[in-house]
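Worked problem 6 (solution included).
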Amino acid sequence: MTTAPAAQAPGSIRSLIPARIDRLPWSPFHTRMVIALGVA
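Solution. The predicted structure is:
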């Protein structure tokens, strides 16, 4: 038995990057990194 790959809309791109980057968790570590990079 063979299976056909899932149909995709033309021009669509599969990615592992979340669709909503702004929904990723933000921790105090990230705040310190942004400040450190701004000072450097």
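Discussion: The chain has one helix and no strands.
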